[in-house]
Amino acid sequence: MNEIDTNSLPVPIDLWQSLLTYVGGPWFTYQLVAICVTFVVTWLLARPVSALFEARARRIKGNPRLLRLSVALLHRVHSILFMLSLGFILIVLLNITWPSRSYLIYTLFQLTLAWVVMSVLSKVIRSRTISRVVAFGGWTYAALYILGISNNATVFLDSIGFDLGNAKITLLLLIKVTVVLSMTLWFAITAGSYFESRIRHSEELTPSIRVLIGKMLKITLVILALVISLSGLGIDLTAFTVFSGAVGVGVGFGLQKVVSNFISGIIILLDRSIKPGDTISLGDTFGWIRELSTRFVSVITRDGREHLIPNEDFITTPVINWSFSNELVRLDVHFGVSYDSDPNEISALAIAAAATVPRVLPSNTPVCWMTGFGDSSIDFILRFWISDPQNGLTNIRGKVLLAMWNTFKENGVNIPYPHREIIMRTPVKLEQSNEKGGDTG
């Protein structure tokens, strides 16, 4: 029969024997009873205590970090009360008996304290996934350290793995990479978002340059976090060259649109053809740009919908930027009046009507020109300027047309409608039908 190598076990055999001896003693039972009673009592007290502190937490205004911390503490009121009660019992036992007789309570107190601290501090991280990874990973490491088996667990986890080229991938390495990358990526993204928000408020830079610097800074911080984390863990980055071919194939087949949109986004930010706040028309989409991203452009239309248009479309298709050089936009309104009207009077009335609409710029005086003699009307075109195209184009045309209608009606100007004359070149014989149903010729 093969002998068991005790050094390869996560917990040595002598430690198991000491633990079994300790469990069989009377003081273990006393501590276990005290722990169960404390758990039940604190569970009963948790609800009224939570209600008391929840009322105060609702009064917190204008401080989201303090509010987030308060909510995290409220969700762990039972754990906090349980930990404090264990601490009180531990102090009493240490003063009346040997420390070995309170080992179970002491260990559980440390584990509960570590859980409360890690779970509360992890709430600073907004990403729920990263927060859970940090909380669980941090508490697991603290638990192994408290139980005194961290070294044995490290050896055990390091023994599980496989070779990849000249590098050895172990379970311990994967855990370290997960925890360290989660922390460094969270820090890089948080720092990038902070600097990006600061850059957006800079009045010395144009909107496009602000977005470009913010996005490039965030990407640079993420790449640095990856490189520093992997290098700090002792991972040879050249080991990842085996994946470079697969990545190249993936870019060639599946990620070409992603790369195209990314490069197109950088080009848009560099040439400043569009920027946040611009009013644009792309195909059937008319609206103003809310945000420029590395993958898409967010365009809000007049109906409140937000269109996420890929950056590539702004490079490969014609785009109308109504506010590229300035906010001034000229609009045309076509109309016609009857032939018994005076064209000079009609032009003056149309200009006066357009001037009464608030959004029509008085600095650029509207003009009205006669454009031709139509089949049923004298045709005109009215041109006027606005400086807020983001507020809509159809509505301002409608208001101008309504003002013209009211003005023409007050001055007796008629809006014609088509007339058709039918000339019969051959005689037509009309027949009168009989009331009783018969026809007469």
Q: What would your notes on this structure say?
A:
This protein is α+β, with helices and mostly antiparallel strands. Among the domains are: 6-126 and 134-147, no CATH class; 275-321, SH3 type barrels; 329-410, Alpha-Beta Plaits. It has 14 helices and twelve strands. The chain has helices at residues 13-23, 26-57, 64-74, 77-96, 103-121, 128-146, 150-158, 171-200, 207-232, 244-253, 256-271, 311-316, 343-355, 394-410, and strands spanning 161-164, 167-170, 279-282, 285-292, 296-301, 306-310, 320-321, 329-337, 367-373, 378-386, 432-433, 439-440. A hairpin with a 4-residue loop joins strand 9 and strand 10. The longest helix is centred in the first third of the chain and has 32 residues, at 26-57. It is elongated, with a radius of gyration of 39 Å.
